[in-house]
Amino acid sequence: MPKQVRHDKVIMMIDNKQFDGSILAARYAFMPNKLRYCGGDTNSEIFEYITRQQTDPGLQTMLGEFQTMFPYLKLIAESNKILDPFNYKVVEAYWIGNELLENVSMQNFYKYLVDEQKLKKRFKLGLLEKVFGKIPVGAKPHHSFHVLNIPKRTGYYPIEHTLETMDECRIAPAKIIEILNGKMKVEYQPLIMNDNKIEVGEPVKKEVFTEINKKAFVRGVEVGDFVSLHWSWVCDSLTKDQVDNLNKWTKFNLALLNLNYA
Questions:
Q1: What does the alpha-carbon distance between residue 10 and residue 96 come to, in Å, rounded to a whole number?
Q2: What is the pLDDT, as a whole number, of residue 33?
Q3: Domain that holds residue 195
Q4: What is the DSSP letter of 87?
């Protein structure tokens, strides 16, 4: 089914090419790539693919260099008997969350963390047991699981996460309050520390970036619409179901994180 979006208060249908999973993956991979956290030195090329809404095997080759994202996509695809790891629903499952996550078995997720993320080589036994112990209680390969429950950022700079970097690195839904020149003012719920646990706080207002050289990923949105944030960059517009899924998986993975403090 093509996606419905509001434009000038009329429901319009977007062409199926907008549901290209490679473009969706690129939207969320762009900013950490630009910050040199993940992937190769290809952020300029990725940016052009997204703003032109064009894809080809070259984009998928670049995205295949993301050592965290791409193996997760393969795991979700294989668990759902989907051949293409850049299938739109596969990519959506990882970054936003959807029903495909439920089909990833505990055994396959454990094997992934050992073989692909190589956690047995990277972590000491005590920390390893904490991470692996979350699989039997429902951990799934959602981006927020990796951000909140793998304590080191991966990529070029494998440094310890802080509350601030976890908040920036997760995908956060945000409501547009004001559209500015090259920016938006949005309302979103930041991560906070409360009674020695990390949780989603009360809504706050924040300015985020939308454009580089007059080019943006999101056009035609209005005040009151929801968008997704990654490292204070507006990645995409969100449907109500996508907002609900993001909130659901973020809160679930925060609960897994807080098992460390129990």
A1: 25
A2: 87
A3: 4-261
A4: -
> Could you identify the residue written with the tokens 């965290």?
68
Which residue's structure tokens are 């050992």?
Answer: 114
Residues 218, 192: contact at Cβ < 8 Å?
no
**Distance between CA atoms of 239 and 252, rounded to whole angstroms?**
20
Q: Report how far apart the first and last C-alpha atoms of the chain are (Å, whole number).
A: 44
CA 149, 153, 158, 160 torsion-angle sign: negative
Residues 6+ apart with CB under 8 A from 18: 2, 3, 53
Q: How many residues does the chain have?
A: 262
Both tokens of 258, joined, read 């807080």
Distance between CA 99 and CA 133 in Å, rounded?
23
Q: What is the pLDDT of residues 202-254, one digit of tens each?
A: 999 999 999 999 999 999 999 999 999 999 999 999 999 999 999 999 999 99
Our CA angle for 185, 191, 194, nearest 5°, is: 135
Per-residue CA distances from 47 to 41, 90, 210, 215 (Å): 12, 21, 12, 9
Q: Which residues pair with 230 in a beta bridge?
A: 233
- Using alpha carbons only, how large is the chain's radius of gyration in Å? 18
Question: Which residues, 6+ apart, have CB-to-CB distance to 30 below 8 Å?
Answer: 43, 46, 47, 50, 217, 233, 235
CA distance 19 to 212: 23
Question: What is the number of structural domains in the chain?
Answer: 1
Q: Is the pLDDT of residue 7 over 50?
A: no
Cβ atoms of 216 and 227 closer than 8 Å? no
Residue ranges of alpha helices (H) inside the chain are: 21-34, 43-52, 57-63, 69-79, 88-95, 106-115, 119-122, 125-132, 143-149, 163-169, 240-258
What pLDDT does residue 160 have? 65
